[in-house]
Design brief:
- The chain is α/β, with parallel strands linked by helices.
- The protein folds into four domains: 2-136, Response regulator (Rossmann fold); 151-315, P-loop containing nucleotide triphosphate hydrolases (Rossmann fold, 3-Layer(aba) Sandwich); 319-422, Helicase, Ruva Protein, domain 3 (Orthogonal Bundle); 445-496, Homeodomain-like (Arc Repressor Mutant, subunit A, Orthogonal Bundle).
- It contains 20 helices and 15 strands.
- The chain has helices at 21-33, 44-51, 70-80, 95-103, 116-136, 151-162, 180-189, 208-216, 233-236, 252-264, 290-295, 301-307, 324-339, 348-355, 362-376, 389-392, 424-441, 447-466, 471-478, 482-492, and strands spanning 2-5, 12-17, 36-41, 58-62, 86-91, 108-112, 170-173, 198-202, 241-245, 266-267, 276-277, 281-286, 310-313, 345-346, 381-382.
- The strands form four sheets. The protein has a six-stranded mixed β-sheet with strand order 1-3-2-4-5-6, sandwiched between helices.
- Helix 13 crosses helix 15 (362-376), helix 18 (447-466) crosses helix 19 (471-478) and helix 18 (447-466) crosses helix 20 (482-492).
- The longest helix has 21 residues, at 116-136.
- The radius of gyration is 24 Å and the shape is globular.
Length: 496
């Protein structure tokens, strides 16, 4: 449920999200008196649905709400609408929440109970700041780019170009970290749908019992916790593109529903009785072998053929080693911009060494390595000894590539096939021992104080990324409760 109060000749619009009806009422009345147009929402889901059509000048959101809380909402807004200023409402004594709000990118926070007369001035300052950002960055490119000069990447670029005038379904395959979503975005941005929504969903990161509602929406009261009607991702992507990442992990019953949507463009919300029609281009992606999944009976063959109309394979980084220098320079420059530092420079011997690694985590792993070097390398010129210990020390030949976000690699000639391995734990232990030995040789005496938080940070950040930011699922896979994970995130200042 939401309501709107449009002030006469209002030049600023503000949306308020709070499950407390009295707070919504007070803000509506006070801001309307100041000639500010107000629209209120009782929950984040309703706000996100409305945001698909248009956006306000300023968002005011409570932190503690049923379903999606204020921090999660702010993260989604920052991703989709980075210039939209967010004002977070929080309790007087909740200092941790205030700090977390600023770290999450909030423009300001309103302590409850707040001074109603001061809210309008705060909203005006936020709107002014948004206008300043918009005017100072009129031509700034949004989002990441596809980069590569290798023949294998040129094949990808040509495929995207040929499909620019087509609305056909595309299946993107490639290892984790190769940039499948970037290719999907490129397909959308070069198509006739570029001015319509691009909605991405990772089917592996959403619990099975929530997936149907996430894709198709639900009616109010259709299940416990469904307090209002909610549009699913298909409705949100109407007229645009829906990107289904890790499609190989989709449950069998949802595969059937997806097939029906692809066949006739119609579906039902959970608990709904009337069919809904949408015009959506579907782009799917997977790192798995769908042919093998079909033969094993884990993926519907008819759905596979529906999705596999045009296939684009993204090459792993070990098949495009000539792109490593280009990618390193790009990500080092971007990391320096993010951290407001001078870009690091790679010595020729370092570039040569980096080109010889396998990069099992592909471009994502390389990008994380660039961030690490920007923070940890002592000088502007990066030397071999500045690389992480696991990059400097060749690993045993029987060790498998480890997690894609960890720069743990084994150098080998470009013509040698990548090693297949059995025990990632050995490589992890060896890298840890190397780091401990290095610190002890430098006469360090407080290793636990540094190693403990770094270890927990690596666990949490990797789990959150793999689970698409879903804290409940990340906590389950880490073996923690959700409250424990939330507390650790606050303690370590992690932005998920």
């Amino acid at each position: 449920m939401n309501s709107t109060v449009a002030a006469p000749s209002a030049s600023i619009s503000v949306w308020v999200v709070d499950d407390d009806e009295s707070i919504r009422w007070v803000l509506e009345k006070s801001l309307a008196r100041e000639q500010i147009a107000v629209q209120t929402f009782q929950g984040a889901a309703e706000f996100l649905d409305a945001l698909q059509d248009h956006s306000p000048d300023v968002l005011i959101s409570d932190i503690r709400m049923p379903g999606i809380d204020g921090f999660a909402l702010m993260e989604r807004v920052r991703t989709a609408h980075p210039k939209l200023p967010v004002i977070i409402m929080t309790a007087h004594s909740d200092l941790d929440a205030a700090v977390a709000a600023y770290k999450g990118g909030a423009f300001e926070y309103l302590p409850k109970p707040f001074d109603v007369d001061g809210v309008a001035d705060l909203v005006r300052r936020a709107a002014k700041r948004r206008a300043e950002i918009a005017s100072s960055q009129p031509s700034r490119a949004a989002g990441p780019m596809l980069i590569g000069e290798a023949p294998a990447m040129q094949d990808v670029f040509r495929a995207v170009g040929r499909l620019s005038q087509s609305q056909i379904t595309v299946l993107i395959t490639g290892e984790s970290g190769t940039g499948k979503e970037l290719v999907a975005r490129a397909l959308h941005d070069t198509s006739a749908r570029k001015d319509k929504p691009f909605i991405a969903i990772n089917t592996a990161a959403i619990p099975k019992d929530l997936m149907e509602s996430e894709l198709f929406g639900h009616e109010k009261g259709s299940f416990t916790g469904a307090q209002a009607q909610r549009k699913g991702r298909f409705e949100q992507a109407d007229g645009g593109t829906l990107f289904l990442d890790e499609i190989g992990d989709m449950p069998a019953d949802l595969q059937t529903r997806l097939l029906r949507v692809l066949q006739d463009g119609q579906f039902y919300r959970v608990g709904g009785v009337s069919p809904l029609s949408v015009d959506v281009r579907v782009i799917a992606a997977t790192h798995q072998d769908l042919d093998a999944l079909v033969k094993a009976g884990r993926f519907r063959e008819d759905l596979y053929h529906r999705l596999n109309v045009i296939r684009i394979r993204i090459p792993p980084l070990r098949e495009r080693r000539e792109d490593v220098p280009l990618l390193m320079r790009h990500f080092l420059a971007r990391a320096a911009q993010e951290l407001k530092a001078e870009p690091k420079r790679l010595r020729p011997d370092v570039l040569s060494a980096l080109k010889s690694f396998d990069w099992p985590g592909n471009v994502r792993q390389l990008e994380n390595t660039c961030r690490w070097l920007t923070v940890m390398a002592p000088g502007l010129d990066i030397h071999l000894q500045d690389l992480p210990a696991e990059l400097r020390s060749p690993a045993p030949a029987t060790i498998a590539p480890v997690a894609e976000s960890t720069p743990s690699l084994r150098p080998h000639p470009a013509t040698e096939p990548p090693p297949r391995a059995a025990s990632a734990e050995v490589a992890w232990d060896d890298a840890l021992r190397d780091w401990i030995q290095l610190q002890l040789s430098n006469d360090r005496s407080d290793l636990l104080a540094e190693a403990g938080p770094r270890f927990e940070r690596a666990l949490i950040e990797t789990a959150l990324r793999e689970c698409g930011g879903q804290r409940i699922e990340a906590a389950r896979r880490l073996g923690w409760g959700r409250n424990t994970l939330t507390r650790k995130i606050k303690e370590l200042g992690i932005e998920d």
